[in-house]
Every structure is written in structure tokens, then in C-alpha cells.
Design a protein that fits this description.
This protein is of the alpha/beta class. The chain folds into two domains: about 200 residues, TIM Barrel (Alpha-Beta Barrel); about 130 residues, Lyase, Ornithine Decarboxylase, Chain A, domain 1. The protein contains eleven helices and 21 strands. The chain binds pyridoxal-5'-phosphate. Pyridoxal-5'-phosphate binds next to helix 9 and strand 10.
Length: about 375
């Protein structure tokens, strides 16, 4: 794709990579796939990614907010859509009317939904969230069977699924995850003894999909892996997965400045000799952290970002790229001439995780798609 001279900064998404990543995870797990496309598909674009994921064989779409679910419904997706977290009760009616599956974890939610559905002759599809050790949302595994029994007998609501979420599946030490897995298995077992069998049982995020064969049940909820990004440094994707996102910009000015010249706000960088400096129209308002140590690729070579990151621009040092010229493509994330900067490289630089790097690319950066 060539957007030079057309955009200051832009993101390119390879949808065939996402499609293939979904196919790989489906084969690897042998389970149904819920493609997690919350937060605008981790910055990749919810509607486009959802399409690619479905082509790759995803059966469900998972989101974090009711607004995200409705965006997909309104875009015409007929697939099952699940809101992984909280839905304010004011939105229950639109969730039910749009056949969005909801997560529940207390009797009040179930009562509200049951009343709503009984009075409007509709059915809410509910998944019971069991807290097996994440201590985030969910009914404690100790009380889950009781609430599940309650749910299974309520009218107006369908007990469509039961799920849990792992806190540490991406770590080398799998003992804490085994404990969560055991607790969840015990809940499922107790429900079976009462002949309560919700259709969908799901527990695994990307990391657990790789590390916990016993926790695949009949569906895995996968986010980071479908984007071709590693769950963590201790939980790397197997061969075959491809990162889908590249982030680029256009080099907009190149100049030679003499020794002793300050660069950018606060003159935090001062040239020590005659230096070739480039200006790139991307800054912290686009999602580049205002930190030291950033680098980009120009003509297949690494160029350090110098001075402070501005809101809309950065300056780079081009001594290693003598041929650099106005109009050159600058790579922030992605490949160029055999060199690569990954979201993981940037995460390490910023002291965060690759998830936050891609989610942090702001909406003003246009996204372009390749099939
Ligand atoms: C975000 C999320 C996922 C996906 O996690 P990845 O690590 O991106 O695969 C799965 N389940 C729940 C409940 C989530 O919030």
C-alpha cells in the first residue's frame, strides 16, 4: 500500500493475516472461536477485523461494551455477539432486542432481565461469569452452582453459557492457572450432576488457548493472538501467526543543522556536530509515548527519535541514513528493508505490554485495509 504524500501518518492492516491467525487458533484448539474485537479490535478496526475473523472461521464476536456490540449489529453482523463485561441496566432492553448475549454474576441482574423479558415476551441470552481467582467480575466459584441453579429456573432468560477468566495464563508458572482451571472444572461437574448444561462453556484467552488444553471446552475467547501479537514474553505464539498491523508516516522535512543547536521543546537534544535531522508528522496525540528512547525505520535503517515527542510531530536523527529524503516512508511499527520494529519492541521500550501499544494508536490515525 502506498499512502506517501497522501497522509501524515497512517496504519495498514493486513486482513488476510487476521483471517489466517483465526484459522490457526481454531485448528490448534479444536474449539469454537470467539474473536475478541473489543476496543475497536485492539486498535485494528472492529468491523473489518470481525469480517476477517468470520472468514477465518470465528463463530462468535466478543466485545467489552454494549456500544461496541451494537456497532457490530448495526453493521449487519448476524453472528453471536457477547459482551464480556458490564452492561449498565439502562441498556438491557437494547441488548436483548438486538440479541446480544450478556454476562451476569448476580441475582439482581438476572431478576431485572427476567422481568424485562417476561413483560416484553423476549428472551435474554445469559452467560454466568464465574470468578475462579481473577477477582475481577464474576460470582465466586463457591457460590456459582447455587446461582446457576437459580438462573436455570428463571423464565424469560436462557442460560446460554458459563465462563471464567484466567489471571496468569501467560506466565511460565502455570500453577495458579491450574488452580483456576480446577475450580472451574468442579463447578461444571457439579452442574452436570444437577443436569444443568449451558450450551457454551468458555475459559481461555489467547495465552490459555495455547497453554491449557484442558480449558478449551467448546470455545476459546481470543484477542491478542488473532492480531498476530504474542500474549507475553513468556507465552509466545507458535510459528505461523502473522502480525497484522503496521504504523507508518511520511518524512516531511530534512535539514542539516550545525553543532550546538537545540532540537524541539526544551532543547532536550543538542547537536554535537553537523547533524542531519528529519521531522515526522506523528506525535503523542497519535499514540507515540512522550518518552526517551523511541526509534523508527527510514530506508530500512533505525533512526533514533531525538528531543521531546511533540503532540503532532517527532524529530529523528538521520546520520545513519544519509540518503533520507522528504517524502520517505517512516515505519513506527512494521517492516522495512529487512528490518522490523514490533509492537513488542515498543512495549518493552515503554515498560508496558503490546496490547496497550496498539490500543493506544489514536483514532485520528487513518486505518487502511488490505485483503
Ligand atoms: C480481553 C479478554 C479476552 C481476550 O484476551 P487476549 O489475551 O487478548 O486473548 C478474553 N476474555 C475476556 C473476559 C477478556 O476481557
Amino acid at each position: 500500500m502506498h499512502f506517501l504524500n497522501e497522509h501524515s501518518s497512517w496504519v495498514e492492516i493486513d486482513l488476510s493475516a487476521i483471517e489466517e491467525n483465526v484459522r490457526i487458533i481454531k485448528t490448534l484448539t479444536g474449539a469454537n472461536v470467539m474473536a475478541v474485537v473489543k476496543a475497536n479490535a485492539y486498535g485494528h478496526g472492529a468491523v473489518q477485523v470481525a469480517n476477517a475473523a468470520i472468514k477465518g472461521g470465528a463463530a462468535w464476536l466478543g466485545v467489552a461494551r454494549i456500544e461496541e456490540a451494537l456497532e457490530l449489529r448495526n453493521a449487519g453482523f448476524k453472528q453471536n455477539i457477547f459482551v464480556l463485561g458490564y452492561i449498565p441496566p439502562a441498556h438491557y432492553k437494547s441488548a436483548v432486542d438486538n440479541q446480544i448475549s450478556l454476562a451476569v454474576w448476580d441475582a439482581d441482574q438476572i431478576d431485572l432481565l427476567s422481568n424485562l423479558c417476561c413483560s416484553s415476551n423476549t428472551t435474554a441470552r445469559l452467560h454466568l461469569n464465574v470468578d475462579t481467582g481473577m477477582s475481577r467480575l464474576g460470582i465466586s466459584n463457591k457460590m456459582a452452582v447455587e446461582l446457576a441453579s437459580y438462573l436455570s429456573e428463571k423464565s424469560g432468560v436462557e442460560f446460554e453459557g458459563i465462563f471464567t477468566h484466567f489471571a496468569r495464563a501467560d506466565e511460565r508458572d502455570q500453577v495458579p492457572t491450574e488452580l483456576q482451571e480446577d475450580r472451574f472444572l468442579a463447578v461444571i461437574d457439579d452442574l452436570h450432576k444437577k443436569n444443568i448444561r449451558p450450551q457454551w462453556v468458555h475459559a481461555s484467552n489467547s495465552a490459555a488457548s495455547i497453554n491449557r488444553p484442558l480449558a478449551r471446552f467448546n470455545m476459546v475467547r481470543v484477542g491478542i493472538s488473532i492480531y498476530g501479537l504474542h500474549p507475553s514474553p513468556d507465552c509466545m505464539l507458535p510459528d505461523g501467526f502473522q502480525p497484522a498491523l503496521s504504523w507508518k508516516a511520511t518524512l516531511c522535512q530534512v535539514k542539516e543543522i550545525p553543532p550546538g543547536t537545540g532540537v524541539g521543546y526544551g532543547h532536550e537534544y543538542i547537536t554535537s556536530k553537523n547533524e542531519k535531522i528529519g521531522t515526522v508528522p506523528v506525535g503523542y496525540a497519535d499514540g507515540i509515548r512522550r518518552m526517551k528512547g523511541n526509534r523508527v525505520l527510514v530506508r530500512g535503517r533505525a533512526a533514533p527519535v531525538i528531543g521531546r515527542v511533540c503532540m503532532d510531530q517527532i524529530m529523528i536523527q538521520l546520520d545513519e541514513v544519509p540518503s533520507a529524503n522528504v517524502g520517505d516512508e517512516v515505519v513506527i511499527i512494521g517492516c522495512q528493508g529487512g528490518e522490523r520494529i514490533s509492537a513488542e519492541n515498543i512495549a518493552q521500550r515503554w515498560g508496558t505490554i503490546n496490547y496497550e501499544v496498539v490500543c493506544g494508536i489514536n483514532t485520528r490515525v487513518p486505518r487502511f485495509y488490505q485483503d
